[in-house]
Amino acid sequence: MPAPRKSVPKKRQPLSAARIAREALALIDAEGLDGFSFRILARQLGCEAMSIYHYFPSKAHLYDALVEICLNETVIPPPGAPWLDRLREFCLSFRNVALRHPGFFLYLISHRLNNRAGLSFLNRLLQVFEDSGLSTELRARHFRTIGYYVMGAGLDESMGYVRGPSAVEPVPEEEARRDYPSIMAVGPYFKKAYHEETFRSGLEIMLRQMAEDAARESSGH
Model-level pTM greater than 0.85? Predict the structure, then answer.
């Protein structure tokens, strides 16, 4: 009879700043920021909480690293392609980041991006706007407008209205159909299946306006 095999202990994956940040982001996306702590993260990593502090002295330091991960996942195409195409690709990529990181997205869009990684990201993005030929004032205005749009849409799709608080006694569907028909008529088009189409439609409206403004300025009108 063969001797029983000895179980080989599973080798523990070594800690690193990259591994900690990756696990933290996955945990936050699954559970949200409210339920996140170094203690919970340490349990996930199989280490002591104090080991995390060796790499990240505080949550703020860790969150800066998570912001940088999200920025690195956002595509800002380099010069070469038409500026409208580059801007469109950025907006679609930023929406994907929102959907990929729903638990962290609110923190990401409220971060001031005033460290080197954030400023480099914003500078590269604004260079796309510069390539439009718009005046500084119009570049600033369109930059803010598109920012409002992609951040608001990302927030709504990743963690917004459908996951928001509800009334204690919501109106029954039969009553809503009878008394609020305008709301109920458009309701089906607010569902997830229509999100991307709606996002792209609104984006094209803004890009079209930018192109018209750029053409008007270049013609001197």
Answer: yes
